[in-house]
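Demo today. Your pick:
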Amino acid sequence: MIPRTGFGLRRALTALALLLALAPPAAAQTVHRVPGSQGWGPGARAWMYSFTQGSQLLPYGWFRALERPDSTTLFRADGLARFGYLPNPGGIDGLPVGFAIDVDRAGMWLGLNCAACHTNRVEVAGRTYQIDGGPSDTDLQSLLLELDAAMRATLADGEKLARFIGRVSAGNGGTDARQLRRDFAAFSENFTAFVDSSRSPTPWGPARADAFGMIFNRAAAINLDNPANSRAPSAPVSFPFLWTTHNQNWIQWPGMVPNVSAFKRLGRNAGQVVGVFASMPDLANRDAPTEARFASSVHAMELARAEWHVGQLTPPPWVGTPPNPADVAAGRALYYQPGVNGCIACHENRRDAAGRYLPGRFKVAVVPLSTPGMGTDALTALNIRDRRVDTSALEGIQVLPLGLAGSFTAEAPAAEYLSKLVARIILNPQSWRGLPASPAGTSAYAPPAVNAGPGISQPMLGRREAAAAAMTGGAMFAPDAPEVTGLAYKAGPLNGIWATGPFLHNGSVPTIWHLLLPPAERPVTFQVGSRVIDEANMGFLWQPGMGRFTFDTREPGNGNFGHTYGTQWNDEQRRQLIAFLKTL
């Protein structure tokens, strides 16, 4: 387990106020919003960029003091822009979009929230637009690898270590240098073990992560203190876009996470926090009281508020050159063409003929890979379906109050274990604790004045029987959607798809134009990392020199085959369909 260390709640809040006062102004850059601002006002956006969901990556004072592994430059000096993270003008202490400060009795922690992976910038005709809820162009794997290298380099270099201890001590008002060194060494050793377990044979690169691989490793290996449960996260997928997800009945690329109630949406959000460094210090402690074992750093009410905001998010309208109306009309006919080659067979359109966004619940298509024309790379779905974990440390513990959903078993499919774990997390009183009282000047961290949404309130969750009854309509996470047998992937709406490349679940096809070509004609390798939109082909510029990472479709899990729908069309028809997609 990763040791927890810090300097106490009162000192943490005092330090937070000081950080706010000393925060440097963000670098000025002209960034535009798309028409309609995607349904978010400035207050909602500022809150979503900085709220804490309970992620605890490392002690915040250590992050501020840490140098890069090969220089004396502070790790945080560029605002993590080298990993693709975006500046946050309204954030605290120069932290980028999606990074937060979490405070508990152990002190202050650096953490992430959903905006880190779901906010992007795109360039169209020389103008830069911020896309809220879009897949970010960030490289999480490189961030973790360099953070590990920085900690190991600090321990190996006496002068670097002395500078680190000096900075931490100055920010803490004095500290025991020898104890700090011991704490830091223990933390670094465990962090290295975590990073080593997260290395993958296929590099993720920008805009991707093996989310379920990471969540399973955290939940079953680190939090259960059982290294044998760890597996290399070998099937990275593209960060999905968030608009429309609140209203879908199934989410995640394999279409295996039910999303039909407030509790289940809260459960999948809690599972996400488990993957991005939530702390569960007593989960593996068989001597601890049962309730204490499921106490975590997850902030359930903040997750409920964030989900409410996601429910208000709308797709970004096309901001490039308006498409030719005749091409749009012809493309619409192709999109709504009857049969398997018409896009509407799988991809619902959430805009009406007048271009108005359609709110409300809807069903998404969960398409078996055995479906003719489907056949995309199966590794992601296989890894989730086939992975099993040792859960003997929790064997016999009831999943929900009153025994309504059975007990933990000695061994279980990883998805089943995660379903049970997040149920216990969100029903644990610790998850509903209030945030610490903010010191003067930290109003940016006050939660927005919104309701958490229908069915979610702290008093209601205090009535455990009611909460348990609401959750017994099925597992929080299921290996397969009930209406689908075998491996499958979800085919959601294509509204706003222009801002979300590369395409397919694993990001293996650079543009929509290439997706409409036979698989043998799609690029074998291409560049990822450009933010410049290819208006003609719909995607990001991908040619050599246009990115910072080479995507190789020959690597395991990176296959660009399958999805042969529409490949029978000619070039003119492909252009027409792209013209119509710009109106969605």
The radius of gyration is 23 Å. The first strand starts at residue 32 and ends at 33. The first helix runs from residue 9 to 22.
